[in-house]
Design brief:
- The structure holds two protein chains of two kinds.
- Chain A is of the alpha/beta class.
- Chain A has helices at 2-18, 26-43, 45-50, 72-75, 109-122, 146-158, 174-187, 197-207, 235-246, 270-276, 281-284, 361-370, and strands at 68-69, 88-91, 102-105, 131-135, 164-165, 167-168, 171-172, 191-196, 219-223, 253-257, 266-267, 292-294, 300-305, 319-325, 334-344, 347-353.
- In chain A, the strands form four sheets. In chain A, strands 1, 12, 13, 14, 15 and 16 form a six-stranded mixed sheet that branches. Chain A has a six-stranded mixed sheet with strand order 5-4-8-9-10-11, sandwiched between helices.
- The radius of gyration of chain A is 20 Å and the shape is globular.
- Chain A starts with a helix and ends with a helix.
- The relative contact order of chain A is 0.14.
- Chain B contains 16 helices and 15 strands.
- In chain B, strands 10-11-12-9-8-13-14 form a seven-stranded mixed sheet, with helices on both faces. A five-stranded parallel sheet of chain B has the order 5-4-3-6-7, sandwiched between helices.
- The chains are: A alpha/beta, B alpha/beta.
- Chains A and B meet through helix 3, strand 1, helix 4, strand 15 and helix 12 of A and helix 14 of B.
Chain lengths: 371, 410
């Protein structure tokens, strides 16, 4: 099996490399996904147990393998390697409702390759390096956070002089943020602000009337939910607020979508599109009532599936988001989320959790009792 | 939709007429309630259809389930049960019952038949009742009050139903302004909001959200016949109201060491759920619930045995207990007997509303003795979890708590 893993690793890495400029080869991707799923069904016991319950779509119209629901990561170990080979484990954020999911890694090289390639494509398409300002803890502060790991790697891969982590002692340092931004203004050096949505909301609440005019080429990446750590702000509203606060065009405010259970990330497409000059990015960056538009790397397949049958829906129809991520070689690449989305022409429109009332009060009470 | 002014008017009127209700003969009240229930079960066709469609709109349950729920609700309001309640209500020579001058009930929307219980208990106790219905409506309560009005207008005059938005703080204040007894059904935030606004001397009984469980001792798995009976009863308790009420079992603790195993029960339960699905089909499934079901089934398959169909599933799992998504999804877990079941369920504390117990009544008594401190669920026979009698205790309290107080004559 080590040989098989080695073979698959080589093919996945080659495909990511091949698609580094944002191209697509869905046939190659899907062929490889089928091979990887078959390998994982034999190597990852919880995933193998899912197979007898899976009804593949008729006529080969959809995936031949099931997707593992994200909750499984909270209850069982999802890995194709023994615990003693683990080099890292990322954990979902702690909430008041239940246990944290764990995603173990024996090798972070595919994760790194996927994260670097996607970020180069969608977040830094126009620069080799630039000044990065992190509104989130780095990996030294939170070693089990995949976001902190990724942002620490960004510092290494894309960080220029003056890059800094503005999160200290469990919180965002507003004075340091202000000093860093004023320095960037004075020096005329573009910056990339990278952080969590709740950190940016905290900044909004703390910065009062401070406004900034960041130099051309600056950008902002925000990610993650609020998890009860701040008030919640609608995505369109937050983007407008952030653009106004930091003196950016709305097309320079990028949403990142990632999960602890994945190795790859997705991004708002407008920086990349404006770089490619394929469209007037500003006019396309608004979200619609159908959700936030996200660019999906070519080695990731996204599908909206019917909630009861889990079969793929026709393009444009709203369903539960299934993500098949080739970079998840040592766990399970086919992941079933509880997020609502629609997929059209290879693009993902993410709605987030269903707006209907859920969980029930009973569930909340029970989850609190069990946690 | 009511506002603070109309709510206050109702509250004052009801309280002002309390003495009139208290002069009513008990037999008249019993007869009025029974006749109203009978009339409700025999509505003219157009009204019957409208009631069922209203309940379907409110709850999303199938028409078959609504019919079942209506039958259960009306059958419960019958002379023998009412007579037993009356004997609780009346007190004795040394303990004189004093009804609350006004009882207020704040209802939740999970189980449509629950409001009748509060209405019957209040009127039998001769306490006028002001009900805040959930925003989704309360078609059954309204229909019962209408039926009561037709059989005994004077009796019906001591009940009123109001509706106002959750955020209407002034209306809530008006609702509670004259209440001596308050029964609250709802989530923790509703309970907290009502407690804050209740009068200082008001007697408050909170039925907050929670869950229920089932316990299957090995005595209920002695042979195939016992297995089938246990599975059928458990399946009915899971199926009723699509498992959305606080009395629906979300977990099943199964004692090992019997002739038949928890795995045998899993297979039998799967079959029984299928049989009940034909008789009582599941209602509509909200998308968020479907998403939660996908997650639940995945974990069940990953760490245990999953048996599933489109509209229901059951599992036998190792490891920590976990909540289910409802809509007929239930997990079985091994336990070492009554003590083991009690210890496993201890974490739920006051959220644990009831435990359905398979097997003979001695098993319920044994479980009661084995429950750890802090737990006060109702223990009942499996198969009857969703049809508690009007005399049932909940949250460790008499059904008449607060509606009555007593003058002790030494």
């Amino acid at each position: 099996m080590a040989d098989e893993r080695h073979r698959l690793y080589g093919q996945i890495s080659a495909l990511i490399e091949q698609l580094a400029d944002g191209q697509r080869d869905d046939l190659a991707r899907d062929r490889l996904l089928a091979e990887v799923c078959a390998y994982q069904a034999a190597q990852v016991e919880p995933y193998g147990r899912l197979l007898p319950h899976w009804v593949a779509p008729s006529g080969g119209a959809g995936p031949a393998f099931p997707a593992l629901p994200t909750d499984v990561f909270r209850y069982v170990r999802v890995a194709s390697f023994p615990p003693q080979q683990q080099v890292r484990a990322f954990r979902t954020s702690g909430t008041t409702h239940g246990m944290r999911g764990t995603h173990p890694f024996a090798d972070l090289s595919l994760y790194d390759q996927a994260a670097r390639t996607a970020a180069r494509c969608a977040l830094f398409p126009d620069v080799e390096r630039m000044r990065l300002l992190l509104l989130a803890p780095d990996e030294a502060q939170v070693p089990d956070s995949s976001l902190s790991y990724m942002l620490s790697r960004f510092l290494e891969w894309f960080g220029g002089p003056g890059s800094a982590v503005l999160w200290t002692d469990g919180g965002l340092s507003l004075p340091r943020l202000v000093r860093a931004l004023r320095a960037a203004e004075v020096e005329g050096v573009p910056v990339a602000l990278l952080g969590t949505s709740f950190a940016f909301v905290h900044a909004e609440d703390g910065l009062a009337d401070e406004r900034f005019a960041l130099p051309a080429g600056s950008r902002l990446m925000q990610t993650g939910g609020y998890k009860g750590r701040s008030r919640e702000v609608e995505p369109d509203t937050l983007r407008r607020l952030l653009a106004a606060r930091y003196g950016l065009a709305e097309a320079q405010v990028i949403q990142e979508y990632g999960m602890t259970e994945l190795s790859s990330q997705m991004y708002s497409p407008w920086l990349r599109e404006s770089q490619l000059r394929t469209i007037e990015a500003q006019s396309m960056c608004a979200t619609t009532v159908d959700g936030q538009r996200l660019w999906v790397p070519g080695w990731v397949r996204v599908q909206a599936v019917e909630p009861e049958t889990l079969q793929p829906l026709p393009a444009g129809q709203l369903g539960l988001l299934r993500i098949d991520d080739l970079a998840n070689l040592d766990s399970v690449c086919a992941i079933q989320t509880a997020d609502l989305a629609r997929v059209e022409a290879g693009e993902l429109w993410l709605l987030g959790r269903s707006p209907e009332a859920m969980p029930r009060g009973c569930s909340l009470a029970v989850e609190e009792a069990l946690s | 939709m009511d506002n603070a002014k109309s709510v206050l008017t109702h509250a004052r009127r009801l309280r002002g007429q309390a003495a009139e209700l208290q002069r009513m003969e008990p037999a008249r009240i019993v007869n009025g309630l029974y006749q109203a229930a009978t009339r409700l079960s025999q509505l003219p066709r157009a009204q019957a259809v409208e009631l069922r469609l209203s309940l379907q709109r409110e709850t999303g349950l199938s028409l078959e389930m609504i019919e079942w729920g209506l039958d259960q609700a009306c059958v419960a309001v019958e002379p023998r049960t009412l007579g037993r309640l009356l004997s609780l209500v009346e007190g004795d020579a040394l303990l004189r019952a004093v009804p609350a001058q006004l009882t207020v009930a704040v209802l939740a929307s999970n189980v449509f038949s629950a409001p009748l219980r509060t209405l019957v208990l209040s009127l039998l106790s001769r306490s006028p009742l002001l009900v805040k219905a959930p925003h989704t409506g309360s078609a059954l309560l309204t229909a019962f009050i209408d039926a009561l009005d037709q059989v005994d207008e004077a009796l019906a005059d001591h009940v009123e139903c109001v509706v106002f938005p959750r955020e209407a703080e002034d209306a809530l204040t008006a609702l509670l302004s004259a209440a001596e007894a308050v029964h609250i059904y709802g989530d923790d935030s509703t309970v907290a909001a009502v407690r804050r606004k209740a009068l200082a001397g008001a007697r408050v009984l909170a039925h907050g959200h929670g869950i229920s469980a089932a316990y299957v001792p090995r005595s209920a798995l002695v042979d195939d016949s016992a297995l089938r009976d246990t599975a059928q009863r458990l399946a009915l308790d899971v199926t009723a109201y699509d498992q959305l009420g606080c009395l629906s079992p979300q977990l099943v603790m199964v004692q090992g060491g019997g002739e038949l195993t928890a795995f045998d029960l899993l297979e039998a339960l799967h079959r029984a759920l299928g049989e009940w699905e034909v008789i009582l089909p599941r209602g509509t499934l909200p998308r968020a619930a479907a998403a939660a079901i996908v997650q639940w089934r995945g974990v069940a398959a990953a760490r245990g045995e999953l048996r599933q169909a489109m509209t229901y599933a059951c599992s036998l799992e190792q490891g920590s207990l976990r909540a289910g998504p409802g809509y007929r999804h239930v997990g079985l877990y091994h336990c070492g007997g009554a003590e083991g079941a009690g210890q496993a369920l201890q974490a739920f504390g006051h959220h644990l509303k009831s435990i359905g117990v398979a097997g003979p009544s001695s098993e319920r008594a044994a479980l009661a003795l084995a429950l750890p401190p802090g737990l006060a669920p109702r223990l009942c026979a499996l198969g009857t979890m969703q049809t508690p009698p009007l005399t049932a205790y909940f949250d460790g309290q008499s059904p008449l708590f607060g509606i009555q107080s007593f003058i002790q004559i030494d």
